[in-house]
Amino acid sequence: MKQLKRTACLFLAFFLALTAAPSLASANSLPNGQYFTALNDKLLPLSASSMPVLVKTSRSSTLYIPISLFDSRTTGVDLGVYSGGDGRPTATLYSRSQSLLFNLDDGTTFTGDGEQKLCMALWRSNRVYVPASWVCSFFGLNYALLTTDYGDLVRITNGQEGLDNAGFVDAAPNHMQYCLNEYYKSLPSDPVRPPAVSPEPSTPSPAIPTPATPSTPATPSTSTPSTPPPVPSTPLPEESPEPDPDIIQVGLAFRCTEGDVDALLNTLDSLEQPALLLFDPGQIRARAAQVRRAMASGHTVGFTLPEGSLEENRAALAGGNRLLQSICCARARVAEVPSMENAAALEQEGWRCWSSQVDAAGMDGLSASGLYRTLTQYSGTVRLTLAPSAGQLLGALSSRLSSGEHTLYTPTEGAL
Predict the structure, then answer these.
(1) For residues 177 and 190, what is the distance between their CA atoms, to the nearest angstrom?
(2) What are phi and psi of 381, to 5 degrees?
(3) What pLDDT is recorded for position 197?
(4) Residue 354 near residue 411 (C-beta atoms within 8 A)
């Protein structure tokens, strides 16, 4: 039995090495923030539908994976955990003994027994993402984040794999290089990349077969594989011209202290437009479902404060973060502070303070055309704050901005 298993592992390693020969037009590795994915002994093609995403907060970073990785019909790998739905407002994962129900609208997660878990699914680019390590631990799967010469690799196994992590990484270089080639070919524009470097096995390995057309089977070579000739580096593109000074980037924020925040979230979801949503720290518990939904949909959640002393501001922010921590295990680091003096002091303590150039949250009779005329009087970056009721103008405003090559961006802790 041991001999049989060893033979199977050797065959698998040989198969991974022969799956694809590296192309000379590929890059050496994935850019930072992109990941390979492997399920048991299968390396998945690089695509948006299978690639994990790293979600950063002020305190930690969490790797999320598409829930579709648990659909054996598309991945070809049965992990024993299955996706029973991957759309809004709910998504499910289940095994023979356990299940999880994710509510994308209010950011809650419940087990099949009705127990609420401090875990949140996210909605990105019309896909559901779940926290990789947490979900794997809940269902008894093995999760590993591995470093390779070709980029970071997320591997999920259920005990039925033939190779351990070290063996898999050693066996997979050629296949990872092939996946990189195919991934870069699929991109709409070919980025500047260094020439490919063929993996150099530490021990003699079987010859790599010559790629063949589908109608002609590949014939393994009996000669020692030669190192591909070096490819000249791609020349750098010509320096791009300076951006038009009349082009503006509009940072979008909503002050969510009153009005129909649920309707605003629906509008932002339909437009797939993230924004900075500013809540009153004292209303966090009453608006818990809206806050969880905002975070699950990829919005930046911050606080807006009334006039007060620096100590009052500090106390309000600390209280708001305690409530955020209790309802969704998160903390805010962005705040709208009326006093410039208080804002400067809070910035020194690690807060990022939002100050809008166009504050239309209290304006009556707003129109998309009027907002557009106001915004285009500025140049560069313009910070805009609206009330939830102005969400109904966002589609028309976005269209007008796009027609003038202007853009909306999402203010975050790292870029207000």
Answers:
(1) 16
(2) -95, 130
(3) 36
(4) yes
- 334-336 and 300-304 beta bridge pairing: parallel
Tokens of residue 227, six digits: 């190192």
* DSSP notation for 158-189: -S--SS-HHHHHHH-HHHHHHHHHHHHHHSSS
Tokens (6 digits) for 105: 């609208």
Beta bridge partners of 38: 43, 155
**What is the DSSP annotation of 247-265?**
-EEEEEEEETTSS-HHHHH
- pLDDT value, residue 107: 82
Q: What is the pLDDT of residue 108?
A: 86
What is the spatial distance between Cα 281 and Cα 150, in angstroms, rounded to a whole number? 44
pTM: 0.53
- Strand residue runs (E) in 26-150: 35-39, 42-43, 53-56, 61-66, 82-86, 90-94, 99-103, 109-111, 116-117, 122-124, 127-131, 142-148
Q: Would you state the structure tokens that stand for residue 161, as one six-digit string?
A: 């794999």
What residues contact 289, with CB distance under 8 A and at least 6 apart? Answer: 105, 106, 107
Tell me the three state secondary structure of residue 374: helix
24/104: higher pLDDT: 104
Report the relative pairing of strands 248-255 and 380-386 from DSSP bridges: parallel
CA angle 253, 254, 259 (to 5 degrees): 175
Model confidence at 193, pLDDT cuts 50, 70, 90, reads very low
Q: Which amino acid, one-letter code, is at 75?
A: T
Q: Which helix (H) or strand (E) holds 4?
A: helix 2-18
Q: What residues contact 379, with CB distance under 8 A and at least 6 apart?
A: 245, 246, 247, 248
State the DSSP string of 308-347: --HHHHHHHHHHHHHHHHHHHS----EEE-S-HHHHHHHH
Model confidence at 49: pLDDT above 50: yes
Instruction: Enter the tokens of residue 386.
Output: 């609206």
> What pLDDT is attached to residue 87?
63
70 touches 64 (CB < 8 A): no
pLDDT tens, 83-100? 876 566 788 898 888 889
Give the Cα separation of 260 and 391 in Å (integer).
Answer: 10
Instruction: Give 50's contacts (C-beta < 8 A, 6+ positions apart).
Output: 37, 44, 66, 68, 69, 75
